[in-house]
């Protein structure tokens, strides 16, 4: 096997893992800081993708369409938190069912508004060569985007008042309330940020993955598994799990078919959960 | 009269519904009969989720996976055998049930035997369904006459045929409806019987408090797996009924929309009621039949998604749950007796005879010893190379300031915490790596710091399930539980729900459950917490009597209580052994006083 082929596989697998991580981070933040699994996460990605698509269709440049998508999904996220999630605090499985229903509603609304097929937007046509193989620049750029998003969330959690409050609220809810943190407001903010991250994912990945009403499912499944495998230390755990699972599946898929890649993903998840029933980070000392 | 009706509501009303359905089946409009058959089948699928979720406590989103796989498997068998044998049910139903159960066992083994977290289990079951959805789109296979054609599906599935021989005819919609009702009723009544049997009682306990159930000595993984297998079998069977009803299957059976429906049926009807899913399927099916364009048309997804959100938020117990709450308001409250509870009075003679009987059945007391036991949580080391020996004869007390590692030491001995180093021995038996329930089998009995009782169950049921864990014999368990109940002076409260008891009474009930196990080593973590002075005195008497027959270790904060035990006292400090002796010597020990009062160089 030639070195250039290996390098190509490695780079594109790293890029797939990064795409998975981008799509998962919002879910991980909401789970890590609220203890809530948002089964509508994939649909928030879809909303982000359609927002960005609509923005470009009315003439906004793509770079401005991304923040537009983020703001749209953040607003929707905040409303959902206020109307639904807030009523279900402490009921993990009820929250899951409610957000599941919500995802279906979003999905159906998208079908009504946009139909089942929609035009993609062209991917920037830059590419570069590794040996005999040509690689598109945009997917490789996602490695960089994922790293920036990780760093952004890390700073948000550790260096802002909101981040401190959010971490206090999840670790010691009563104590946080007792010292005057309005944890409901913090949670609304957290859910909005999580939704915004999903929107960002949908928008920034739009050139690679075109908007369709059911696109959420594609991300959601792997996203859920990534977060669940990651366990309580959501941020670092998710980054590692995304790298291992997403990268591994991508390597497998590039040698065999994409279905085999999916099966690989599922089996490795099952094995990891067998070895670490509470997630790989269950016994870590770090908290982010 | 009404009390009896309430108690047997799950038997009488479903029986009535079955009779009415059968009586109507002949005169029903054939198209309505055809559609209504699917509601019954969906209700059966809902029942399979209620078994594992409402009773077993695991929200499984893989029910449609078992349903679909069972359907495919049963259909393939029916296609191949129907032309010659006629009868489709006796082939398709059992094979689909077995196949569904096998798949559930494979998935359940991973979930339960690795002791996976709740969230992890639910997500894994969900992704299993979605994985099937993507794999079956392209999965093509010919089995004999049957052609599984990827997203083209599997067609030419024979209908419901009851007669034998190649001339037997497919039933018309009305007869098919009646047949499905009969099969479903049989499954429902069997499920109801199963869930009320000893097996069902244990499954209920696992849902209420999984740790306590294992501390009673039940191998929880086995029961969870069996329950999951049963739920998979019911789902598989309903899948085969669906395949015969629809004459066609395709991968959309594994879709999210399909999976979404199952918890909706259960929630509409009432979680854990067993009959609820049928009511749910009837309501949802009826609504979309009379209001919308059938089960698949219109904006069903939109309506269902909204319904699910509203149900979870506003009607969490479903129709049957709400009805039950309403009905109970008109019945006498059995928990009234909790308020008239008398004082516990330990009769040492009765206790002695109970303990002698236990020794005769379970063997002599066992020594518990630890050898350099070591447990670490990140930077904290709550148990740091502790070597202690405990034997019967007199009680052992563990004392120490908050954070000394007393409870952690006890939890390490029981197996709730797995030590990183050192050994734990029961007599000469190394139990360091043994599972909790096996330690209980070997004779360990544990009461944790918080009283652990099955709050939804009555006092008698609590004691019975503990006694049954040891005796595995209904009559024996009745006898043991009744004796302990008498000793605790709780006869008046035997039908009271444990959650209605006061904190002190729950402590007694928990201790009673431990006694039902006839343990050879008893570990009690702060048994006197929440008890009155009189009760504490009785407790002291109980512990001293107990220590004559078995090995007893007590963790306690109440120094007065420790003094009355007149036993051996060990002081732990920051996870390490600090001092030992009788309480008077320790009271005179300056170093011990230092750590308790937080003064001097020992802090």
Query: What structural class do you assign from the helix and strand content of chain B?
Result: alpha/beta
Shape of chain A: globular
The main pleated sheet of chain A reads as: 2 strands, antiparallel
Distance between the first and last residues' Cα of chain A: 40 Å
Please tally the helical runs of chain A, counting DSSP H or I stretches of 4 or more residues.
11
Side-by-side strand order of the widest sheet of chain B: 9-10-11-6-12-13
Give the DSSP E fraction of chain A (strand runs of 2 or more residues). Answer: under 5%
Cα radius of gyration of chain A in angstroms: 19 Å
SSE diagram, text form:
The complex is a heterodimer of chains A (288) and B (603).
Chain A (H helix, E strand, L loop, with lengths): L2 H32 L6 H17 L4 H22 L8 H23 L12 E4 L2 E4 H23 L1 H11 L1 H6 L4 H22 L10 H16 L3 H22 L2 H18 L13
Antiparallel strand pairs in A: 1-2
Helix pairs in contact in A: 1-5, 1-8, 1-9, 1-10, 2-3, 2-4, 2-8, 2-9, 3-8, 5-6, 6-8, 9-10, 9-11, 10-11
Chain B lengths: L1 H6 L1 H17 L4 H26 L7 H23 L3 H25 L4 H19 L3 E4 L2 E4 L23 H24 L1 H11 L1 H6 L4 H27 L9 H14 L6 H15 L9 H15 L3 H11 L19 H15 L5 E10 L2 E7 L2 E2 L5 E4 L6 H9 L6 E6 L2 E2 L5 H6 L2 E4 L11 H13 L2 H14 L15 H14 L4 E5 L7 H17 L1 E5 L3 H7 L2 E6 L2 E6 L1 H5 L2 H8 L6
Parallel strand pairs in B: 6-11, 6-12, 9-10, 10-11
Antiparallel strand pairs in B: 1-2, 3-4, 3-5, 3-7, 7-8, 12-13
Helix pairs in contact in B: 2-7, 3-7, 3-10, 3-11, 3-12, 4-5, 4-10, 5-10, 7-10, 8-10, 11-12, 11-13, 11-14, 15-21, 18-19, 18-20, 19-20, 21-22
Please describe what this structure looks like:
The complex is a heterodimer of chains A (288) and B (603). Chain A is mostly helical and 288 residues long. Chain A has one domain. Helix content of chain A is 74%, strand content 3%. Chain A has a two-stranded antiparallel sheet with strand order 1-2. In chain A, a hairpin with a 2-residue loop joins strand 1 (127-130) and strand 2. Chain A is globular and about 65 Å long. The termini of chain A are far apart. Chain B is of the alpha/beta class. In chain B, strand 10, helix 21 and strand 11 (551-555) form a beta-alpha-beta unit. Chain B is elongated, with a radius of gyration of 29 Å. Helix content of chain B is 58%, strand content 11%. Chain B has helices at 2-7, 9-25, 30-55, 63-85, 89-113, 118-136, 173-196, 198-208, 210-215, 220-246, 256-269, 276-290, 300-314, 318-328, 348-362, 406-414, 436-441, 459-471, 474-487, 503-516, 533-549, 559-565, 583-587, 590-597; strands spanning 140-143, 146-149, 368-377, 380-386, 389-390, 396-399, 421-426, 429-430, 444-447, 521-525, 551-555, 568-573, 576-581. The mean pLDDT of chain B is 88. Chain B has 24 helices and 13 strands. Chain B folds into 2 domains: 2-256, no CATH class; 348-456 and 522-597, Rossmann fold. Chain B starts with a helix and ends in a 6-residue tail after the last helix. Chain A binds chain B through residues 37, 84, 87-88, 92-94, 96-98, 100-105, 107-109, 112, 217, 221, 224-225, 228, 259, 262-263, 266, 269-270, 273-275, 277-279, 283, 285, and chain B through 59, 110, 114-120, 122-124, 126-128, 130-131, 134-135, 138, 256-257, 260, 263, 267, 299, 301-302, 304-309, 312-313, 316, 378-379.
């Amino acid at each position: 096997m030639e070195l250039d082929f290996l390098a190509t596989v490695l780079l594109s697998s790293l890029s797939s893992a990064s795409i998975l991580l981008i799509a998962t981070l919002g879910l991980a933040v909401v789970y890590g800081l609220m203890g809530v699994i948002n089964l509508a996460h994939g649909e928030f990605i879809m909303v982000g993708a359609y927002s960005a698509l609509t923005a470009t269709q009315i003439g906004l440049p793509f770079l401005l369409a991304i923040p537009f998508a983020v703001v749209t999904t953040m607003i929707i996220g905040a409303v959902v938190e206020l109307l639904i999630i807030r009523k279900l605090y402490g009921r993990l499985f009820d929250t899951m069912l409610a957000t599941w229903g919500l995802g279906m509603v979003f999905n159906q609304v998208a079908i009504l508004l946009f139909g089942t097929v929609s035009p993609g937007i062209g991917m920037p046509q830059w590419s570069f060569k590794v040996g005999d193989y040509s690689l598109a620049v945009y997917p490789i750029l996602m490695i960089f985007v994922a790293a920036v998003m990780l760093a952004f969330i890390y700073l948000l959690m550790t260096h802002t008042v909101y981040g401190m409050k959010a971490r206090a609220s999840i670790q010691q809810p009563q104590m946080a309330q007792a010292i005057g943190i309005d944890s409901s407001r913090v949670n609304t903010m957290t859910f909005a940020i999580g939704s915004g991250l999903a929107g960002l994912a949908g928008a920034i990945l739009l050139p690679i993955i075109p908007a369709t009403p059911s696109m959420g499912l594609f991300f959601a499944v792997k996203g859920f598994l990534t977060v669940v495998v990651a366990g309580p230390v959501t941020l670092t755990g998710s980054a590692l799990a995304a790298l291992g699972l997403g990268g591994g599946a991508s390597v497998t898929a590039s040698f065999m078919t994409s279905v085999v890649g999916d099966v690989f993903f599922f089996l490795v998840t099952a094995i990891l959960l067998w070895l670490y029933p509470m997630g790989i980070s269950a016994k870590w000392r770090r908290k982010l | 009269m009404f009390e009896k009706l309430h108690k047997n509501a799950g038997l009488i009303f479903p029986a009535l519904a079955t009779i009415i359905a059968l009586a109507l089946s002949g005169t029903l409009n054939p198209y309505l009969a055809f559609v209504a058959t699917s509601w019954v089948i969906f209700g059966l699928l809902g029942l399979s989720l209620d078994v594992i979720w409402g009773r077993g406590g695991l929200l499984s989103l893989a029910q449609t996976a078992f349903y679909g796989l069972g359907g495919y498997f049963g259909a393939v068998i029916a296609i191949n055998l129907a032309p010659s044998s006629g009868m489709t049910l006796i082939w398709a139903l059992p094979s689909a049930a077995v196949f569904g159960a096998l798949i559930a066992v494979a998935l359940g083994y991973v979930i339960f035997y690795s002791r996976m977290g709740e969230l992890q289990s639910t997500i894994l079951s969900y992704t299993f369904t979605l994985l099937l959805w993507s794999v079956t789109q392209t999965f093509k296979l010919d089995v004999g006459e049957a052609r599984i054609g990827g997203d083209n599906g599997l067609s030419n599935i024979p209908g419901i045929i009851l007669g034998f021989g190649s001339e037997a005819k497919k039933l018309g919609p009305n007869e098919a409806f009646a047949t499905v009702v009969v099969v479903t009723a049989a499954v429902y009544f069997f499920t109801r019987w199963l869930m009320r049997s000893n097996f069902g009682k244990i499954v209920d306990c696992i849902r209420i408090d999984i740790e306590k159930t294992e501390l009673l000595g039940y191998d929880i993984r086995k029961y969870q797996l069996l329950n999951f297998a049963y739920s998979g079998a019911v789902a598989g069977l309903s899948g085969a009924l669906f395949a015969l009803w629809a004459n066609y299957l395709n991968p959309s059976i594994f879709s999210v929309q399909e999976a979404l429906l199952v918890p909706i049926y259960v929630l509409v009807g009432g979680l854990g009621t067993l009959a609820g899913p049928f009511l749910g399927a009837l309501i949802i099916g009826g609504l979309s039949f009379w209001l919308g364009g059938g089960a698949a048309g219109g904006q069903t997804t939109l309506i269902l998604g909204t319904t699910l959100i509203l149900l979870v938020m506003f009607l969490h117990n479903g129709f049957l749950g709400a009805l039950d709450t309403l009905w109970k308001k008109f019945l006498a409250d059995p928990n009234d007796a909790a308020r008239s509870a008398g004082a516990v009075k330990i009769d040492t003679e009765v206790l002695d005879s109970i303990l002698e009987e236990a020794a005769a059945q379970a063997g002599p007391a066992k020594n518990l010893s630890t050898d350099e036991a070591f447990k670490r949580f990140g930077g904290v080391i709550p148990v740091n190379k502790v070597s202690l020996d405990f034997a019967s004869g007199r009680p052992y007390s563990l004392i120490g300031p908050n954070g000394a590692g007393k409870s952690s030491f006890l939890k390490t001995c029981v197996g709730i915490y797995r030590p990183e180093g050192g050994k734990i021995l029961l007599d000469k038996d190394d139990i360091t790596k043994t599972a909790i329930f096996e330690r209980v089998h070997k004779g360990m009995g544990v009461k944790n710091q918080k009283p652990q009782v099955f709050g939804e169950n009555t006092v008698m049921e609590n004691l019975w399930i503990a006694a049954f864990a040891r005796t595995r014999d209904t009559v024996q368990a009745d006898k043991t539980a009744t004796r302990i109940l008498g000793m605790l002076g709780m006869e008046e409260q035997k039908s009271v729900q444990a959650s209605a008891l006061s904190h002190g009474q729950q402590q007694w009930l928990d201790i009673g459950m431990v006694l039902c196990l006839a343990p050879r080593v008893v570990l009690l973590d702060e048994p006197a917490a929440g008890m009155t002075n009189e009760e504490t005195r009785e407790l002291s008497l109980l512990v001293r009597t107990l220590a004559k027959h078995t090995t007893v270790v007590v963790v306690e904060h109440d120094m007065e209580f420790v003094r009355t035990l007149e036993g051996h006292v060990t002081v732990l400090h920051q996870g390490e052994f600090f001092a030992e002796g009788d309480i008077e010597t320790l009271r005179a020990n300056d170093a011990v006083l230092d750590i308790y009062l937080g003064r001097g160089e020992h802090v």
